[in-house]
Amino acid sequence: MAAQKITLQQRLLQKLSPQQIQMIKLLELPTIQLEQRIKKELEENPVLEVDQNHREGEQSEEQSNSETNDESTKDISIEDYVNNEPSYKFRINNYSKDDKKEDIPFSVGSTFHEYLTQQLGLIDLKEREYTLAEYIIGNIDEDGYLRREIEAMVDDLAFSINLEVADSEMEEMLKVVQDLDPPGIAARDLRECLLLQLQRKENKNEDTLTAAKIIGNYFEEFSKKHYDKIMLRLDIDEEDLRFAIEEIMRLNPKPGNAYSNPYNKANNVIIPDFTLEIIEGELQVYLTRGNVPDLRVSSHYANMLKAYNENRKNQSKDQKEAVSFVKQKLDSAKWFIDAVKQRHQTLLLTMNAILEYQTDFFIEGDETKLKPMILKDIAEETGLDISTISRVSNSKYIQTHFGIYPLKYFFSESMQDGSGEEVSTRKIKKILQEVVYNEDKRKPVTDEKLAAILKEKGFPIARRTVAKYREQLGIQVARLRKEL
């Protein structure tokens, strides 16, 4: 057995301080999630409280208080907590006049699945049939499709509630569910969804019947836009096919989205983190405050800790534990407030650098004015790390006088045009969009032709690069863009 011995080693390690960890986490959060994070911290830390007396006019006092908190990694003294004023500058005239906007959601209304179940209650069904239909509704996704196989649902019913059901019985109950509104519900694929809607149409005409034949018998040819084959097999002319296609295009491929309850409000609202304004001809960017409160350390706990420290000799064991707890919470509150302060400064520093880099775009809103810009460019401009710039630009938005944009929108790669000048790839994509928009839909422009057009405009790029940009823009290949 080898002899054991003690050795001494020196190693250089990188460790993040608690404040740095707080800063990294807060930096990634958009405004709406920052509000939730602050509320959580207020609930967990009794020492941290909302400053109700803080106003914009107290900016000078905030600045004087913040000067004492620059070195957040030093030991914290009791005097740091006695002052009730916030120790950070959260508001430096950086908000618009009407920046406080509260969105109060409705607490009533029914969901899409509840709407289907309510309709089920109006049908004369036995208890067993109602159970099966309700189970089918529970497996419908938000788009209105039934993504599960009949056999899988039959097995689940047998194992979960010990209910033996035949496949044919489930098929019959599926037809009952498919008769509910909106039409096309509980379809297992797009073809069945469109067919259900065509079958439910009132006042069917020749165009509706032709559309049903196309979807029922030649769906693959229709999806690939092989119109010549369809006209040949159905023995119809181009005008009849065009009318039938118009019938199909009026159908809803996602019937679940057709349900709209006026008492249900959508929650996918974008709250911009920055607001851009033009004041006296100059661009100025502000941090959006939203419902983010001003924070401060509670003077009650600070005074309590000060009193305990002045009378240490007469403290019991329980009192010492209480002092240790309060001191820990005071440190945590100080670190959190400093992290919010640094987040505020880092966001503004980064956004101002982007604003300076893309001034021409922010003035006119012309996409072709965007300069090539990568994370490294802004990192060099601000002196921050590339990972920090990445965290700032992720999930953040800015509101301009011509729309709301994600910060990632302003970053793009560069390439050289015919004269050797660096241009943004976004400018090339804009040209592609315009060409496709103005093309003859009966004879769409191919990738080869697009590459030739770009070359004529001074952008010599390969066909495969054109295909990559086209896919990034969500533009289909020429064959699928064909219209009659």
Explain how this protein is built.
- The chain is α+β, with helices and mostly antiparallel strands.
- The protein has 3 domains: about 20-100 and about 275-365, no CATH class; about 110-260, no CATH class; about 415-480, Orthogonal Bundle (Arc Repressor Mutant, subunit A).
- Helix content is about 50%, strand content about 5%.
- It is built from 21 helices and 8 strands.
- The protein has helices spanning about 20-25, 30-45, 60-65, 80, 110-120, 125-140, 150-160, 165-180, 190-200, 205-215, 220-225, 225-235, 240-250, 300-310, 315-355, 360-365, 375-380, 385-395, 425-435, 445-455, 465-470; strands at about 50, 275-280, 280-285, 295, 395-400, 405, 415, 420-425.
- The strands form 3 sheets. The chain has a 4-stranded mixed beta sheet. It has a two-stranded antiparallel sheet with strand order 1-4. A two-stranded antiparallel sheet has the order 7-8.
- Strand 2 and strand 3 (about 280-285) form a beta hairpin.
- It is extended and about 100 Å long.
- It starts with 17 loop residues before the first helix and ends in a 12-residue tail after the last helix.
Short description:
This protein is of the alpha+beta class. Helices cover 49% and strands 7% of the residues. The protein has 21 helices and eight strands.
